[in-house]
Each structure stands twice: as C-alpha cells, then as structure tokens.
Amino acid sequence: xxxxxxxxxxxxxLAVEGVGVRLAGRDVLRDVRFTIRAGELTxxxxxxxxxKTTLFRVILGLQGPTAGxxxxxxxxxxxxxxxxxxxxxxxxxxxxMPLRGRDLVGLGLDGHRLGIxxxxxxxxxxVEAMLGAVDARRFADARVGQLSGGEQxxxxxxxxxxxxxKLLLLDEPLxxxxxxxxxxxxxxxxxxxRERKISILISAHDMNPLLSVMDRIVYLAGGHAASGxxxxxxxxxxxxxxxxxxxxxxxxxxxxxxVAGTGDDLQAAREHASPASAIEIV
Length: 282
Hints:
Number of domains: 3
Shape: globular
C-alpha cells in the first residue's frame, strides 16, 4: 500500500525496495517495500516469526537480501553511510558485572576500538547529554545488570543515540516491560523522533502501545508487508489480502484487535467487548 498520503517531515532516510530474503529454502520476506523520512516514528508490526528481525538485519547490512535492496540517506547501502543506531531485542547483562549505565552509554562512542580509551571532557559531556536526553541521570551510576527493564531500555537507547545516527532501529523494545514502563519508553522515543529529527523504526508484535505516536505502520505477515498510516493499513480488506485469508479488525476499549475469520469467535469478541475473547493475530 502506498504511504504517499502522509505529509513528509523531511528528507528520505530509509527506503526498502522490494526486499526478499530466502533462508533454509523458505521465503522469509517477499517484495517488502516502504520508506521512512526524517523525524518519523514507524512501527514494524508482526507476529513472532513474521521476519521483523530478518528485515532489521538486512537494513543493518548483516544479512544480504535475495532480491531488492535498501537505500539509506538517499543512496545504496554502503560502509560510508551515517551510522544506524540499533537496540537489539536480547541484551543480557550479568548483574554483578561492574559496568555502570554511563559506562555503557560511553561505549556507543568508542566501544568498537581496541585498547583503553582516555577520558576527555568532550566525551564526558556527550555521555551526560545523552543520559539527560533519556532521563537516566538518576540511575546512571548503578550497575546496568541491576537496573529495571525500563531503566535498561533508556540506557540502551542512549548508547544507540550517542553516535548521532539519522536512523534508529529498536527490536521489540517493549517486550517484558510492564504497561507503565512501556508507555514511558514509547513517549520518550516519540519525543526523540520529533525533537532530534531522527527516524525511528520500532518492531513489535502488538501495535496498541504505539497507536498514539506512529506516523506510519509497516505490517508484516506471510513474508509480505503493507505500509502507510494506521487507518490505511489496519483495515479488514488490507490485512485479509496480506494474510491470505479473511480477518476482521475490531476496536475494543481503545485497543485494535486483528482476529481470524468471522463467526463464533468474532461474535464472542463483540458481545463480551474484551480483548481476551478474540483470537488476536497481532
């Protein structure tokens, strides 16, 4: 689906052009197309196994596509591109590791270099600025492994931002967070996108926490993608075509539910008006 109806905030930062990926004899992605402009926050939505992480790997240059390609900053992907910030889905830290929050943020500047990095005033200022940008100064001197999930996410976001990327990818950043922490992270990322004109792509299996802040949605299912505004994409006709069978879109208590088929399951969801009564695909 075309995303041309949205008003662009700035120049094109990312273009995914007909990307296909075939792994172990299976088409994980097929002809995936979408663009992101400066300052836009985009949700990459799909169930587990839909190919979200594979698409991230293609964008990061870690996985070669079978078909199509990726343009970053208006040109073909290359090693000379501006850095892409990345917050991985799994980041395990030993609680006893003597690594403070501010230390991890600083590694975003020079962690790729060998040897001991000499502290400098400029480095300290950058680290402090990033800690302030994600409201993490109050726990910056605690060991990262002992922080809560929401606090760790703030530190990881600062780590990814300190190299001043134009594009920030976050792989399931809301997984395993409580509702309050998840909403705080979403609000933080929305502010970063708008204030710093950074393009942000967030993968998630549930679109609902992102509904109020998404400028664009890329919905993955069956290896294919539909992109555009939420109203353009999250519709029965669009998602039925994407899944290859009929689905219905329900709006219940401020949540969007994508349910398989019609009949008893759909009627039960309507009668009980509860998310738990529907078969939620995403």
